Every structure is written in structure tokens, then in C-alpha cells.
Amino acid sequence: MIYTDIFLLTWKRVLIAIGVVVISVVLHNVISFLLNIEEVIFFSLGLFFIPLYLTLGVIYTSIENIKAWRKKKRKNTKRRKIKKKK
To answer: What confidence category does residue 25 fall into, taking pLDDT thresholds of 50, 70 and 90?
Structure first.
């Protein structure tokens, strides 16, 4: 599923996202200093979009982990019932 490819977080993706936030803050400050204008793209990226991605990713990853845990729990429960019948 495409959502799994995008929103399922791993430590690598989290660290990359945090790095992108740091780089965008630095680029925003450098461009603002050099050109004497307020630059919006890197500021928006670092302040809104990456934290939004991380928030959605944490929610999606949590939901997927709960689903996997429930599926595993059901599977183990069925095995126990079969063993009890024998």
C-alpha cells in the first residue's frame, strides 16, 4: 500500500526528518541574512510540513502496530483453543 511506503516510520526516516528540519532552519536564516528578505519556503518546511509528517507518521505507525499486535494475539488465541480441544 502506498501509505505504508510513505507514513510507516522507521528510525532512519525520523532522523532524516529531524535533519531536514535543522537544515531548513539554517537555510532560512542564511538566505534571510544574505538577501535581506524573509524567505518562506524553508521556514514553512521546517516549521509546519515536517512536523506534520512526523505527527501523521507516528499516528499511522501506532495504528499499524496495534493492528499487527491484535492479529498476533488472535492467532495465539486460536492456537490455544485448538490445543485445549485435543
So the answer is: very high
